[in-house]
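Box 3.1 A note on notation
Throughout this textbook, protein chains are presented in two layers. The first layer is the amino acid sequence; the second is a token string describing backbone geometry. Keep the layers aligned when reading.
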Amino acid sequence: MKAHRQEPHDLNERSLRDRAVAAARGDVPFDLLIKGGTLVDMVTGEKRLADVGLVGPLIASVHEPDDSLRAAAELDAGGCFISPGLIDTHMHIESSMVTPRTYAATVLPRGVTTIVWDPHEFGNVSGLEGVQWAIDASGPLPLRVIALAPSCVPSAPGLETAGADFGPAELETMLAWPEIGGVAEVMNMRGVIDRDPRMTGIVQTGLDSGKLVCGHARGLSGTDLNAFIAAGISSDHELISADDLMTKLRAGLTIELRGSHDHLLPEFVAALNQLGHLPQTVTLCTDDVFPDDLHDSGGLDDVVRRLVRYGLPAEWALQAATLNAARRLGRNDLGLVAPGRRADLVVFEDLKDFKARHVLANGRQVAAGGVMTETMPDHPGDSLRRTMKLTALTENDFTIPAEGKRVRVATIDRPRFTRWGETIAEVHEGRVMAPSDSTFIAVVHRHGRMPGVPRVGILTGWGNWTGAFCTTVSHDSHNLTVFGSNPRDMCLAANAVIAAGGGMAVASGGKLDAVLELPIAGLVSDAEMAQVADGFKALRAAMDRIAPWQPPYLVFKACFGATLACNAGPHQTDRGIADVADKSVLESPVLEVLA
């Protein structure tokens, strides 16, 4: 039996409770006594001196310092703050481009003891096998991983083709697995609102299971938001403004306040501070963290740290990341340092930098001083290799054929909140030339379920690129996606990624500048965290040389969501330019031959 499958019922074993009660009375020693720390009380908001006595994975006692109580071992928390372990309510390990083992080894020493993982990237590439691999790879780890059943594989059916197709039957299969905690973010918003039979069936399967049904309500308001929630969806992390935050709080959604959009956090903090209290429905999540950011800054601990830096009271930030999260998950054993609860604990050195001195999971110290103290098993990723079902491409594949000398073409305008545009383009030797201030984007189906024919479009508002970028991390179907100023560099970067079995590459001036190999599902590497982080940093640096970024929207991260066809507006997919509003696909951007 894999770790955590018996939770939370494992704490109710009779002999464990007998020992805990005896230790709490002072009749027998605790297994471990954490002494000298200041408890951050998630219920009252108080900071008070307290010792914490543990018996196995159970907190047996939280009491005023008392030197008369005995323990088999003691842990010195003098001058530090005792908190429940942090709970990340929505995230994707694949975004950090490492295996679950490597991810766990990175975040556990920082105080993150539970994550709610939507493995829909693996699901979109490798189907049920990918989700099962995610569960098997994370089950034996000391990091508690609550997996969710991917609801949108693909995210926009009919507009894109992923490596698998999950309907109600597949959701029912996954929801029957004990490790699955619910339905992952329902991204096909229009399908839910319009009562599309497929999405209605998926959501209903989740409701029938009695497990969580999580949401993705980007840009929804008014009647659409009400309809989305009335369908049975109960959370959202896709906030776009403080007004959006307040609207969704008032609508009763659980908020998964995410750290991946840092430019929005200050206004979220201001809105919450103006309320004068922290709503019980505010939780925290990371969503997506790139490998260099994870290695250098951390996971959910970094979100807590930034929120406090932006002015949120430390007790509120911790409450959102612990007790509120546990309540959302229906896990009364988590999120609180109190008798009878699970001993997932962090000893933070302060409430500003939140550096974890000690981390305990299920009553065992798993990390100290920022490093793991427990060895973790590895899980081979061989079954998810060889997912790049493409042969080498040619420069001609990255062009747009056209007749005449000039054409009117449709464009995808802006890297975020995309909209349709049009422009006039010159035609040379039967190929459309990129207009000034535009960039080519090509998407190639790579999963072997459709012909691997590149569909090429034109992006505007992305500046003047001087090279090309290719990636198989391309939300959410994760087809081969290539951006660039010219077919030569696009072809060079694409073929490097194909040869690597997946990953990313940057090319300029007819040469490769950087390659990051991600051979497991074309999404992650089994290398160590530092190595993947360094490789990604090199890739970022190469991208900075070829693309003119303009934060907060025109940034490197925008490249990974440029194919997210479930979001409003036009998006390039392996079928053409797709628009979820009218479920249309434009195979070629050429609208009219002018001469």
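Residues 295 and 533 are 7 Å apart (CA to CA). The chain has 15 helices and 30 strands.
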